[in-house]
């Protein structure tokens, strides 16, 4: 059974939606009939009749070009109340979501999936989520490609790619940042606030757990392979007053790994940096490295190759 994470009824009143053309026109027609006229309806729902015309038409003209005209959730609820339809019945007719001016072609409900778990992992890693944007920057092209592919699949937007300081980047509208916050990603700087693994990932399928871990280790993990050592390590910083939460977060990561028969060391302190502390752990033994390769693996091609070489060195 699919786990629904974001439904139409979960969206705040200041969000906007774009409805299927036929459904939208039928919705307005029913409300007009119920209230006794177009002007009467506009007065009841407290918008001017010209705005109501734009809603029914689905667009407005700006500089001789058509621009989508959205319906605010708060206004949609008023219309639905007039014609006695529940908001859940409208969900399948939503073809786009907006917060400000930018529309993303997100279909509802948003469900728990391995691809979404990967986006959460990247957002908690090298990504940044805010009300203005969802941005991801990494030195590896294959990772930004993955973020682009999954964001387009789930939220219907391909983003804006850029190259900065020898890194590949991609940026998406703020509405996607807000939607990601609904599935468990904190808004703003992660180092200054509490972070937890969302329950739908902690108690999700093996594929959901694996994709989340792969994305997080692609961003924050390292594969060490030399003549003396073979291990995977991961560490992250957190503001000093949030150390207890940081330890809880790392122990949640360890629990996911153990579920996949990967047995890391205990979480340990690494170093201080300004007003933050770095904590992390390692994955050492042969069985755990093999199970990491089998059950999680890297998409980061250099780390992936080092892991293959480390495992092959045990076999020789």
Gross morphology: elongated
Distance between the termini: 45 Å
Low-pLDDT runs of 5+ residues are none
Helix content: 40-55%
CATH topology of the domain at 219-315: Endonuclease I-creI
Mean pLDDT: 94
Give helix and strand order, one letter per element, not per position.
Answer: EEHHHEEEHHEEEHEEHEEHHHEEHEEHH
Write the layout of secondary structure elements.
Blueprint: E1 4-6, E2 16-19, H1 21-35, H2 38-44, H3 49-57, E3 59-62, E4 65-68, E5 71-72, H4 73-83, H5 87-90, E6 94-98, E7 103-104, E8 110-111, H6 114-124, E9 127-129, E10 133-138, H7 141-155, E11 160-164, E12 167-173, H8 174-182, H9 199-202, H10 206-220, E13 221-225, E14 230-239, H11 243-259, E15 268-273, E16 276-283, H12 286-295, H13 301-315
Antiparallel strand pairs: 1-8, 2-5, 2-6, 3-4, 6-7, 9-10, 10-12, 11-12, 13-14, 14-16, 15-16
Helix pairs in contact: 1-2, 1-4, 6-7, 6-10, 12-13
Write a compact overview of the structure shown.
The protein is an alpha+beta fold and 316 residues long. Helices cover 45% and strands 24% of the residues.
